[in-house]
Amino acid sequence: VPQAASLRDPTFGVTAFPSPVETAAGQQNVSLTASQHLPWHGKLSTKAAAAEADTNVARAQLSAVELEVIEQVKRAYSELYFVQRAIRITEENRKLLLDFVRIAESKYRTGKASQQDVLRAQVEISNLDNQLIRLRQQIDSSQAKLARLMHISPDTPVRALEQPPQRQIPHDLQRLYEQAIAGQPELHAQLAAVQRERRNVDLARLEYFPDLTAGVTWIGTSASGLSPVANGEDPVLLGLSVNVPIYRKRLDAGVREAESRVVASTRQYDSLRDRTAESVKDLYTQAISQYDLVKLFRDDIIPKAEQTLEISQSDYQVGKSDFLTLIDNWQQLLRFKIAYHRIESQLQQTLATLERVVGGQLQTIAPPETIPPPVPGANGGPVPEPLPPEPGPVPPRP
């Protein structure tokens, strides 16, 4: 900004006369000239305003990058949490499977089961060992990714909490729209770009007015010369010059170009605002859906699967069911537990992305447990009001 608001450097010049110029005052051998370019009133302040708007663009872009880094850290942390939980669940299920092996071996020794049951259980243990190898490789990769985002050594053994803090999720979509329009840095950057282009229009219009150049010239004169009345007085000359903006086509084209850039920046803001609203709605529906799935797995699916496995284990011990049924129920419970924590991790990642889109911490309250939020405009649901105006001056639609 100080560069745009400053005058150009003054110009100094020295002229030496190889052949002295004879005047009535004496011989003139050298002259010194100084000049300063003076733009028309308002040009420097307009340039400074455009530079300030450009600086605001950069500030907003910096805020956007900071939010993006925070999002990446949270997503990487959630992925690390999932892998840790998957390893723990797999290890616990391996211990449970070892119990099944002991039961199958006991029944096999008494002739109440075939060797196939024992072999099937041992194959499943080997399969779990294979999964554990893959998961431990994934946890190393997740730790290295999180360490990179935190700018620490990739060998740092970063760990996630065993149980992440319970986070509330938003359920007021209209409030999220308002928060995104007011707080998203990308929108602020685009608004600042519109202001910058407007200042450039003003600057293009000021080009119709001439700039001034003021100067002073000193000529060194000696007291001796051909003239008998030479007095040696050094003349000082003052000068003022202006450029003449007569090429109107060039100036008109400059104004039209600047105005077109305002139109383009305004359209880009409108497009970005629409994409922001779309992203908010998409992430909002994802979060609600993932929250419902987490609740469904936690409160209904997993408890029933655990109960089914317990019954299968009891029935197998007394010979009421076969080993394949027991293994199938065990595999199903394992898949359900892994899926539960995967969806739980995805919910945290979705909320992290939603925070970036709205430009900060979510303004949340607990979602309804039984009644889902109404779909705007569907089945008599409320139709949302138009998006609120953006902060600051609103660029007009051309």
Overall description:
With 398 residues, the protein is α+β, with helices and mostly antiparallel strands. It contains 7 helices and 4 strands; from the N terminus they run αββααααββαα. The protein has a 4-stranded antiparallel β-sheet with strand order 1-2-3-4, with no helix packed on it. A hairpin with a 2-residue loop joins β1 and β2. α2 runs antiparallel to α5. The longest helix has 70 residues. The protein is elongated and about 145 Å long. The relative contact order is 0.16. The C terminus is likely disordered.
Write the layout of secondary structure elements.
Blueprint: H1 2-5, E1 11-23, E2 26-38, H2 43-109, H3 115-149, H4 173-183, H5 185-206, E3 212-221, E4 236-242, H6 248-317, H7 323-358
Helix pairs in contact: 2-3, 2-5, 2-7, 4-6, 5-6, 6-7
Strand content: 5-15%
Mean pLDDT: 85
Instruction: Give start-end ranges of low-pLDDT stretches.
Output: 366-398
Q: What is the number of E strands?
A: 4
- Record the strand order, biggest sheet: 1-2-3-4
* Tally of helical segments: 7
Query: What global shape is seen?
Result: elongated
Describe the biggest sheet? Answer: 4 strands, antiparallel
Which structural class best describes the helix and strand composition? alpha+beta
Query: Which percent bin holds the helix content?
Result: 55-70%
Query: Kindly, what is the distance between the CA atoms of the first and last residues, rounded to a whole number of angstroms?
Result: 29 Å
Please state the CA-atom Rg, rounded to the nearest Å: 39 Å
